[in-house]
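It would be a great kindness if you could assist me with a short task in structural biology. The matter concerns a single protein, recorded as an amino acid sequence and a row of backbone structure tokens. Kindly check, if you would, that the fold set down in the tokens agrees with what the sequence suggests. Thank you for your consideration; the sequence and its tokens are set out here:
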Amino acid sequence: MHVPDGFINPYLCVIMFVVAALFLIWAWRGARSTLRKSFVPLIAISSATVLLVQMVEFPAAGGASTWHIMGGTILTMVLGPHGTIISMTLTLIIQALYGDGGLSTFGANVVNMAVVGGLSFFLVKALAGKNFSRKRLALSLFVASWVSNIATALLVGVDIGLYPMVGTVGGLAVTIPAMLVLYVPTGLVEGIVTSSLVVTFSQAKAVRLFGLELLRNGRHKNGDASPSV
């Protein structure tokens, strides 16, 4: 799902850097006001975990491509939306430095994955409601994870499809279907994984999911809720 260098129009790269920067400013301010003051180590640990999870790739499209868990919706249940955007951005920085995704397209990758993953929290919240049952939470997580995968695939398809060179071979009419063919079914798999893991963790007394606390109780101030897991 990472867009490498040379696959996006330079003007679009600049626009996506600006959009990514605006979301990161919003995420940083939100994290400082909702998470505990010690949220930086937790975000660092979460970023390392996501990096390891995304290194495990599975064959897709008959072996012509690979797929990995993105983990954005799972992370929102641990860190909330603001912490998720920051955490996934840190993961993307490391991946870009090692050639998984480009430096010039870094802004686009942040928007496509970190921002979409973080904002999936609000879809879970809208679908689950405040007084949600376990079944409703599971369904909300499944739908939000699947939709966020599709949204990321659409954005990547649009980014690449708008590149002039790609336009000569069909542009958006080629890139968007190609992305959806792969990520509609794999998104279903991630939805099942996300739903199963979060519901299981939510039943363990030793586990505290800050994103789940936000769903239940709304906005927290520093120190009101522990995001530790």
